[in-house]
C-alpha cells in the first residue's frame, strides 16, 4: 500500500503529492485525512505530512520510495473528505499552497515543530579554512551545539556551505529535534482489582479496624458504582487522596489514566430558555428559511434586519429544526466580544449541545472543542471565522452573524473572505447559509438584489421598542464657540440627564490608547516605530509608547530624538483618554472601558459585559467591541465621539465602514421599553454616510453608495487584484515592483486592464520589511487572474534579492 502525502512546507516547489510506502504495521491505522511523519529531503529529516489518497501502485522506483515513519492522532483523520475538497478549492481561489490551506483548516497548535542543530564531534579539528575555523570557534564558545537557524542569523546564507564542509570532515554532526504538543488532559481513574482473594483479605482487615473505615467506604463505592475519577471517589467516600493511595499500594484498587475533554462552561450555570413566539415578520422569515432548507440546491440567504429586530431568535429556531433532523450548526461571530452574550443565549436554549472556540481559550481547550465536534459530542459550534472549519459530520446550517464585519476577511495567507468560503462549504455539504446584518456589506446586498442570494428583511424591532432618536452634532461649531473638549455640550448634558435617571450610557470611539501620537513642538518630528514607520500611540496606564501594528514598546523620551528639544506634546484622543475625561467630568459615575488593552486576560470580555449588564457601571467606554451585537435594556444613550475616524482611512469602502459603525453603535440604545437617544459627533456632518446612518436608512445609503461605486468602477462592478511585494531592503523591493509594473504594462497593450501604481503601500514598512504594491482592475475575473498570475510568474523569475510576493483578489482594505 502507498500513501500520497502533502508535506508541511509552504514552498511552491514542494506543493505536490509525494508517494510513500505504508509499512505493514501501519496499514490498519492509515486513512485518508490523517497526519503522518515521513522522511523528507536529502537529510531525510522528519516532516509532518497529510494523507490525501491511498493506492496500490506508485510510479516511484522501488529503491527510491521512502516509508512512512509514524501515523499521528491515533489514526483519527484530521481532515474530513469535505475539508480536503474545500482546501483544494481554496488553493486555486486564493493563490497559495495546499499546505497553507491545511494550516488554516486544521486546529491550531498541534503542528509538529522541527529544529536542526549543529553539534561538535571533536575538540581538535585540523585542515580547516578560515571561515570553518571561525564557525568552529563560535560553536565551541556556545557549548558545542546550536540551532542552525541561529547560525544563519549570525553569519547569513554563506554558513550553509561551511556547515556542509565541517560535516564532511566529521567535525560536526547535524541532528534534528522534533516537538509535538498533544494538549491532552488526563484524569486519574480507579477501579477494583480482579484478584478477588486479595480484595477479600484487604476488605476483612479494613473492617476489623476503625482507623481503616475510610478504606471500607472506598471499596464500597467502587463495588456499587464501578470505576471512579479521583475527585468523585474522594467526594463519595469522604476520604483524602492518601487513603486511596494506600489501597492502590496494597493492590486492592487499580489506577489508570483517562483522557478527558475540557469544558469551557458549565451548562448547569445557565437557566433554561424556550423559543419566543415569533413576530409576523419573524414568522414569515422562518417560513421562507424552512422552505429554502428543504431544497436540493439552496441559495445563500441574506437576513437584513434593523438592530434589535430579533435575528438571533431566528437563528436559534432554525438551528433547533436542524438539530431535530440529526444535523449540526456552525454559528460565526465577528469578534470575541460578541461570544459571551451569544453563548449565554445559545447555552440556555441548547445546553451542553453547544460549544465555543476562539483565540482567548487555551490551545488545549480549543483542541478539545474541535474533538467534541469530530466525535459527535456537540451539535452547535460558535466562534470567529476559524469555526467555519469545524469537523462536523453533517452540517445543516451555517450562520454568519454581523456578516458585514471586516474581521471575516483573513489578512494572512490564504487571504480568504469567510463569506465566500462559507458559500463553497454550503455547496459541498448541502447546508443552508444564513448571513445576518443590520448593515449588509455592499457586495452581499448587490448579489441579493441581483437574485443570487435570497433576501429577507426585518424592518421592525421586537419588544415593542422603536429605533432611537439620533442627533448630529457639528464639532466644528463646538470648536468655534470655544469648546475644545471631546464632549459636545449636548452630549455632556444628555449624559448628566441619564445619570440622574439611573440609566446607562455607552461612549464609542474606534481608537484605543491615550494619545494618537507624540510629536516635538520644536521640529515637528513625530515619534515612530523603527520597524513599521508608523507613529507610536501613547498608553497612560503603562506610561509607554506602543506600536499597534507590531506590538513594539518604547519608553517616552525626555528630549526629542531628532533635535534634542524638551518640548514634546501628546496629540489626538483614544479610549483611554475618553475614560479619564469621563471620570473627570462625571465624578459620580461608575465607568468601565472595553478595548483590546482591557480585554487581554482570559474571561475579561465576559467580566466587563457582565458587570455592565448587571448595572454595576453607569458608563461603558469602548472601541467597536461595544458597537455591535450587545443587548442591554437599560442603555438609553449612545455617544459616538468621533464619527469621522473611519471616513479618512483611504480605502474605497471607507464610507461604507463609517456608515456601518455609526448604525451599529447607535443600535445599542433603546432596545427595550425605554426609548433611546444617540449623539453623533462629527467634523463632516454633510457626509452621506453620517446622514444616512443618523437616519438609520440603509436603503438610502445603499442607493447613494452603489451609484458612486458603479461610476468609479469599484466592487461589486469590477474586480481588483492586489500584488504587494515586501522585503528587508527597500531597493530590492522597488526594483522588483518596477519590473512587475513594466511586465504588466507590456502585456496589457491589448487587454485594456486598468493598472494603478506601483506605489508604497499604505503601511509602507511593517515589522522591518518595506512594502510596495500595484493594483489591476477588470470586470472579467478569470481573465484578470490569468493576466496577473502570468505577470507575477515572470517577475518572480527576475526578482531582485530576497523579496516576497503577496497576492490578494478583491482585498477588503
Task: Write a concise keyword list for the protein shown above.
813 residues, alpha/beta, seven-stranded parallel beta sheet, 24 helices, globular
Can you walk me through this structure?
This protein is α/β, with parallel strands linked by helices. It contains 24 helices and 34 strands. The radius of gyration is 31 Å and the shape is globular.
Strand and helix layout:
Blueprint: E1 2-7, E2 18-21, E3 35-40, E4 45-55, E5 66-67, E6 70-71, H1 81-94, H2 98-105, E7 113-120, H3 130-141, E8 145-147, H4 148-155, H5 159-168, E9 172-179, E10 186-192, H6 196-207, H7 213-225, E11 228-229, H8 230-237, H9 241-250, E12 253-259, H10 280-293, E13 301-305, H11 311-324, E14 328-332, H12 339-350, E15 354-356, H13 363-374, E16 380-383, E17 395-401, H14 418-429, E18 432-437, H15 442-449, E19 454-458, E20 469-474, H16 475-480, H17 489-500, E21 504-508, E22 517-520, E23 537-539, E24 544-546, E25 553-554, E26 568-571, H18 575-585, E27 591-594, H19 604-613, E28 619-622, E29 635-640, H20 654-666, E30 677-682, H21 688-694, H22 698-712, E31 719-727, H23 730-747, E32 754-766, E33 769-778, H24 781-797, E34 803-809
Parallel strand pairs: 2-5, 13-18, 13-19, 14-16, 14-17, 15-16, 17-18, 20-30, 21-28, 21-29, 27-28, 29-30
Antiparallel strand pairs: 1-2, 1-4, 3-4, 3-6, 7-8, 7-9, 10-11, 10-12, 22-26, 23-24, 24-25, 31-33, 31-34, 32-33
Helix pairs in contact: 1-2, 1-14, 3-5, 7-8, 10-11, 20-21, 21-22, 23-24
